[in-house]
Amino acid sequence: MSRSAPPRSIRLRRSVLSVPAVNRRALEKTHKLDCDAIIFDLEDSVAVERKTEARDNLKAFFSGPALTAKERIIRVNALSSSFGNADLDLVLELEPDAILLPKVDEPQDIMAISDRLADADAPENLRIWAMIETPRGILNAAAIAEAGRTAGSRLDCFVVGLNDLRKETGVLPQPGRTYLVPWLMQVVLAVRAYGLDAIDSVFNDFKDMGSLESECSQGRAMGFDGKMLIHPNQIECANYCFGPNGEAITEAEAIIAAFADPASEGLNVVNLGGRMVERLHLVQAQGLVHKARLIAERKTTR
């Protein structure tokens, strides 16, 4: 496999499993799971009377054996809520890879948490993920993404929350997500404009694997980087649908080799088997090959 280096920002985020921090057994099982990232949830999946218990569970879990080859994200309650400050204190103590903010409505939500993390001298590699799950969040997606490119911002990824969005708009949960696709594409366009990642929303029926595969394939076709999951049984499907297949890897390596040929030096377009390939396709090919390499390397560390 070619060793051409793509941009360093590329991460594996095919499968992003949400785990309730109140569930100790589920927390321990995460060590053996083949997902790319874990969202440790302190928000929706935790009842009000168990918020403190969830934080204590998470503190105990992080003090144990470290997760390997998985991104660690903590979803906090709204910082304006009575639980927000305690959740943020826990994030600063545990230093995960990212903090996931619920119901991000406007750029100020991102800048406010960026300022608080800076004031607390949080490590620079502690990133911000944003749940886009309200009508205002969808309408302001581009402005929120742009805020991620301002000085001091740590914004790294959007996660779409369709359950809340359906609730607030009245759109029914129909197969194919027909009336939601324009909003989903608006999110993808926003993140691509500003160099962020986008994670597709959860699929609620974890026993319906056929419909899950259809929705994962749809999300991949729309340009999402991966899918938020609610059950370990969904991991394999998401990894397959959002991962590069053998045919795509072979084609990407051929593109890289074609541009590496001395005869192609200085050319922006090359002839690859009768097909004209532009240099922009080289960047895409390098990214795909790099993802394939990351997947192979992650398998060796599990």
Salient structural properties:
eight-stranded parallel β-barrel, disordered N terminus, 16% strand, alpha/beta, 302 residues, single chain, two-stranded antiparallel sheet
Structure report:
Helix 6 (141-147) packs parallel to helix 8 (181-193), helix 9 (209-222) runs parallel beside helix 10 (235-242) and helix 11 (246-260) crosses helix 12. This protein is 45% helix and 16% strand. A hairpin with a 2-residue loop joins strand 9 (269-272) and strand 10 (275-278). It contains 12 helices and 10 strands. The strands form 2 sheets. It has an 8-stranded parallel beta barrel with strand order 1-2-3-4-5-6-7-8, surrounded by 5 helices. It has a two-stranded antiparallel ribbon with strand order 9-10.
Helix and strand topology:
Elements: E1 15-20, H1 24-29, E2 37-41, H2 51-62, E3 71-75, H3 84-94, E4 98-101, H4 107-119, E5 127-132, H5 135-139, H6 141-147, E6 155-160, H7 162-169, H8 181-193, E7 197-200, H9 209-222, E8 226-229, H10 235-242, H11 246-260, E9 269-272, E10 275-278, H12 279-301
Parallel strand pairs: 1-2, 1-8, 2-3, 3-4, 4-5, 5-6, 6-7, 7-8
Antiparallel strand pairs: 9-10
Helix pairs in contact: 4-6, 6-8, 9-10, 11-12
The quaternary organization reads as single chain
Strand order of the largest sheet: 1-2-3-4-5-6-7-8
Query: N-to-C SSE series?
Result: EHEHEHEHEHHEHHEHEHHEEH
Enumerate how many helices there are, as a single number. Answer: 12
Mean pLDDT: 92
Shape: globular
- Secondary structure: number of strands: 10
